Amino acid sequence: xxxxxxxxxxxxxxxxxxxxxxxxxxxxxxxxxxxxxxxxxxxxxxxxxxxxxxxxxxxxxxxxxxxxxxxxxxxxxxxxxxxxxxxxxxxxxxxxxxxxxxxxxxxxxxxxxxxxxxxxxxxxxxxxxxxxxxxxxxxxxxxxxxxxxxxxxxxxxxxxxxxxxxxxxxxxxxxxxxxxxxxxxxxxxxxxxxxxxxxxxxxxxxxxxxxxxxxxxxxxxxxxxxxxxxxxxxxxxxxxxxxxxxxxxxxxxxxxxxxxxxxxxxxxxxxxxxxxxxxxxxxxxxxxxxxxxxxxxxxxxxxxxxxxxxxxxxxxxxxxxxxxxxxxxxxxxxxxxxxxxxxxxxxxxxxxxxxxxxxxxxxxxxxxxxxxxxxxxxxxxxxxxxxxxxxxxxxxxxxxxxxxxxxxxxxxxxxxxxxxxxxxxxxxxxxxxxxxxxxxxxxxxxxxxxxxxxxxxxxxxxxxxxxxxxxxxxxxxxxxxxxxxxxxxxxxxxxxxxxxxxxxxxxxxxxxxxxxxxxxxxxxxxxxxxxxxxxxxxxxxxxxxxxxxxxxxxxxxxxxxxxxxxxxxxxxxxxxxxxxxxxxxxxxxxxxxxxxxxxxxxxxxxxxxxxxxxxxxxxxxxxxxxxxxxxxxxxxxxxxx
Length: 641
What we know:
6-stranded mixed β-sheet; 9% strand; globular
């Protein structure tokens, strides 16, 4: 597929009116939406902004490639915009950007589409190609330049495929280095897997050729792993560069010189990475998660980053929480608290304790262990998590199970690495999983009973909290939901609420949900009643936060908080804390982990639920009003042309 099949004249703007990063994004999204490429303009913009929040897509050299892969895209497409004057897009080199390629990849985009979208990013590494696009006087001239570049790339790929096929005919049983063996190996990957992955790969290959090195680069993109490194190549290589912001299989590089860096460094600083990799004091990668004494980065010391490991477990657990929780809520709504009826029973079976909710603790433990020890930690973490569930050790047991499995896997790996070379292969295949499961499982069986006692004691203490203490807890949990709106503090409060539901204490999560609902509604109220304090664009987008807030989607407040954090975040935290505290004061209990106003009929286990639902709604509204009033006081009046 040619790039010109995705980039059409009707998705091009040769003279952008935008003057800021945000207006560039809006103008290109509007163009894609007007031409029918998008299903949901708002959702697509959210996906674009989420990608920008990870790292800017302003790559320097006058290029920006905002991109997203999302179900909000109807048809895979490329939007193009050009500004000869240049626009500040927060580029990595600090210079204005002139060429903007907005990539819209649908969630179900096939490999051919993804390969075509990715190929465009490699073209932009060519200075002469960028200049041709910049100087073009018409859409047809731009498309002709792209078609010519496409043809050149196809010929190059055909030659590479022929050379690779010739290599496959040779024996790969020996790891003796030949003149054809790559001196340097590279691995690139970015969260979306469309743009930076391939630009970093091309930058490394071009710079290596310029410096006189041979290199092979593995890409971890949306279409899967391409150009995968072989064991023989890894054994023969002098050094390895991993330029990635996504998870890469690292254990294969044990004992080799490895440089790890963000994918943006692969795009912008390929020479620096190559020089570091080929230096005498380049760090030796240790598969145990540690690093050599010479290594300057702490990123490889995986086993010591407790916070990161917990967040990895929580992030991977959330889809089970949200999906399973909403299905449980639907089962209550359809079948009542007895969940009577075939449909209600089916929904509860899928989302409840025998389905998604029953997997929360094992998944939490498995991904904590995997964060510590990579794939060898996953299986023992999962099994230890199941033991924690069966032994009534709860979330506390799941956390301990995850760390136990991870560190046992690291220890076993160290022992396996000390085996004679002749046994190392069978050791990794046979001994590692058996020992990981045996040791982790045995220890968990020994400690699960004491953990259960601790867990039950904690539950009893929380259930016995007086009204005043529960109000304080509600204030704290509500405020935490808005400190970073979807970040680690928010996730910590949300996870605590879920753990309390699992333990049978339904009050904390009611405060958590109220705290997450109030800020978006408060912002919507502020844009409605304090219009002079917001720009025209904010006034237009503000009302959508009524629905987002009522649906318990705190993230609707993020664009406002990002634009004015010193005023918006304190106002939002105050409103959230008030909502959480009032919920506890009113004695609201919530069995559903998600759903917002749609699960209010489930409060207090359906017994006399109407007044409690009204109390709950009042708590959320009062918290939102406080946020709105504080925004009206704190924010300055906006003067627009």
